[in-house]
Amino acid sequence: MHYAAINRSRTVSHHVSCNDCSLSPICLPLAVAPAQLDELDRIIHRGRPLKRGEHLFRAADDFQAVYAVRSGALKTYVLSDEGDEQVTGFYLPGEVLGMDGISTAHHVSNAKALETATVCEIPFSKLEMLSQRIPTLQHHFFSLMSNEIRSDRELHMLLSKKNADDRVASLLLSMSARHQRRGLSERVFRLPMSRYDIANYLGLAVETVSRIFTRFQQNEWLRVEGREVEILDRRSLCGERQNLEASL
Fold first, then answer.
1. Nearest to 61 by CA among 101, 99, 21, 96
2. How far is Cα 212 from Cα 147, in angstroms, rounded to an integer?
3. Local structure of residue 51 (DSSP, 8 states)
4. Over the stretch 140-191, which tens digit does the pLDDT of each residue have?
5. Is 111 helix (H, G, I), strand (E, B) or coil?
6. Residues 6+ positions from 184 with CB-CB distance below 8 Å
7. CATH of the structural domain 3-137, one choice from 3.40.50.170, 2.40.100.20, 2.60.120.10, 3.60.40.10
8. Shortest CA distance to 90 belongs to which of 29, 30, 172?
9. What angle do CA 59, 61, 64 make, to 5 degrees?
């Protein structure tokens, strides 16, 4: 069952075009002219908001589209043969997901809303045709796919190391950089995912993640209140990540 089809059944009354969207500099190439953005805007579907815990797509669904997050956050995950969940990624506003199905014509992962979220659904067949007329658009999506490959590689390298502090520091710095890309504070931000999802993604126990957050606070590297995070000592956090990168 393709969940995006359900989303289209109830469209959002407040339509925001690509030209007016504050996220377009992130999820679209800067060189696209306004008239070309209008062409892209005409093929995009904007469905109803996803509720927390609702799926955008599931593994084995037919691949029909890629999705740009407009608001909220989503996670992707796969299931083991035993039915255990393994989180494979987190997606914030301006980021694109769903490209896992391009090669097989079926999604190989599941995508679930971590909180109320809205997405722009971009039918891939129409995107391919449009990209033939707009080379910068084609290049941009090649870059997005390259970033996905790089992110997968970085995750595998991260999980191959035993230092749990490095893993948590790397995630926090990644979230900081992604907020900065959206013009938001790189120092103070909210984590949309639970401690369980963080632990699952990093291959750690939940108790280990909680202890590391506590230790980072005791070191005065962070201030944490619930899911709200303030980075107090970026240099120390970067030192943790650099120690990891130096050992790769």
1. 101
2. 28
3. P
4. 777 777 777 777 677 677 677 668 998 999 899 999 999 998 889 999 999 9
5. strand
6. none
7. 2.60.120.10
8. 172
9. 125
